[in-house]
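Per reviewer request, we include the raw input and output of the structure prediction for the construct analysed in the revised manuscript.
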Amino acid sequence: MHTIFKLTRAELTFILIDKTQLLEKNSDEDIVNTVATDCMCGDVNIFFSEDDETNLTTGEMEIMIAEETSRGRGIATESLWLMMRYAIENLKVDIFEAKILEQNIASLALFKDKMGYHERRFHEVFREHWLEYRLCDGADYRQKIVVNSQHAITTKYE
């Protein structure tokens, strides 16, 4: 489950809720009215920038699963797909990027192997892999986002 926490011109954050913990702690009737702060497990962020020459909008992705019991269960993967879908449908993002420290093997595997991001460069000074996912490289990139987030139901709140 995901809740939009903050929307500004330059940043968007989804607070992540561990669905398993939520279901363990509440009955079905209680879930609708529950403030799930005790089930928060992390967050996913996107920071926006626009290239003045190309007019392409880039969203730099960040993910953190803070609760160790919530790691390795697909929460990060699902959250990234949902954030990317929201960004292409509502914020017209053209390129997604991620900057990952070289020792963060789990995040590298997540972005490269599971998500399909490509290495743009390795930044020697920061010891970071700079990865990107370019929607302008073909319709398949957009379709992959839609397919991997098709289970989600989106609703606009008044």
